[in-house]
Specification:
By secondary structure, the protein is of the alpha/beta class. It contains nine helices and 15 strands. It has a nine-stranded mixed beta sheet with strand order 14-13-12-11-7-10-9-8-15.
Length: 309
């Protein structure tokens, strides 16, 4: 089978650190071109826009969208309308309605759409889900704290409307939560801490509940310095479970569990994308996105000191 010819839209930090290495290390794909207003990728054709890339490379099978979420809908829509499969980096779009419509367009075009949740492909997530199957969960605590200047240096889009703010990483935790739990999850309360000069929150405290009454608390903070923290602590009737380091480590009753896992998150994601394309199906799970949207709907906005990236 010939490799999937793919183009990349957006050449920023995530594209360079994850997507390009994963694509170039996968014989099932051939990275042929990229489109970016500012970035370039050596060894392939570079274009200033998706339209110019598609005009010059009509034989592309798929594109990956790595731009800020405010631009995702227009890019993915154009690609689907021109017959391309689409790999959509998270967060999905500016609105939940946009993501729903992209899923419809993919079905109408008979093309595959992957709304990616890379944290679900972390080493220990599948083991945690298996461990929790059939076990009542009493309580969950999510602690997701990191230094925005380290992970999003100078990226003004993240503070603008539709840029998600602290929910850009926070949605990763919610993607793991909805993957490992069998029960529906709902936001019940939220406090959003928004700098006086920004549109998006720099921190957030959430209370959530499942439809069987499991209580969940989540703390997201972009102001955290020092040791970065991406943990999910779970109390069940059979003991405690901890997913640490963004889902890459598993602890049962405080003891580490050895995980056999040879591939990284994005290697796994692209393997999944190739499988979707081969089968002619899509994978669009909007639940993490809906939880973020509901946090904005229910949330109390608290103005805090200005933040200068």
């Amino acid at each position: 089978m010939r490799p999937i010819k793919i183009g990349l839209v957006g050449v920023g930090m995530i594209a360079r650190s994850q997507h390009i290495p994963a694509l170039r290390g996968n014989p099932g794909f051939r990275l042929e071109a990229c489109a970016s207003r500012n970035g370039r990728v050596e060894g392939i054709d570079n274009f200033p826009s998706l339209e110019s890339m598609l005009d010059a490379h009509p034989g592309l099978d798929a594109i990956t969208v790595c731009t800020p979420p405010q631009t995702h809908y227009d890019i993915a829509r154009m690609a689907l309308m021109r017959g391309k499969h689409v790999f959509l980096e998270k967060p999905p779009c500016a609105t939940t309605a946009q993501l729903d419509h992209l899923a419809l367009l993919a079905r109408q075009a008979n093309r595959s759409l992957l709304q990616s949740w890379h944290s679900r492909h972390a080493a220990a997530v599948n083991a945690a889900r298996t461990r929790l199957e059939g076990r009542p969960v009493r309580a969950i605590r999510i602690t997701w704290k990191e230094d925005v200047r380290q992970w999003h240096p100078g990226q003004e889009w993240i503070w603008q409307s539709g840029g998600f703010g602290v929910f850009d990483p926070g949605i990763n935790a919610l993607s793991i939560l909805t993957e490992i739990l069998q029960d529906a999850v709902f936001v019940t309360e939220a406090r959003l801490y928004v700098p006086e000069n920004c549109d998006a929150p720099i921190a957030a405290d959430l209370l959530l509940s499942t439809d069987v009454g499991t209580q969940i608390s989540a703390q997201f903070d972009f102001r955290h310095t020092g040791l970065q923290t991406w943990d999910i602590d779970i109390e069940s009737d059979s003991g405690t479970l901890k997913l640490a380091e963004g889902g890459s480590q598993l602890f049962i009753d405080g003891k580490p569990v050895a995980i056999e896992y040879a591939e990284g998150e994005y290697i796994s994601l692209y393997r999944h994308f190739a499988d979707l394309v081969a089968k002619g199906i899509s994978d669009v799970d909007a639940r993490p996105f809906q939880l973020v949207a509901d946090a904005f709907l229910l949330g109390t906005r608290v103005t805090v000191d200005r933040f200068d990236p």
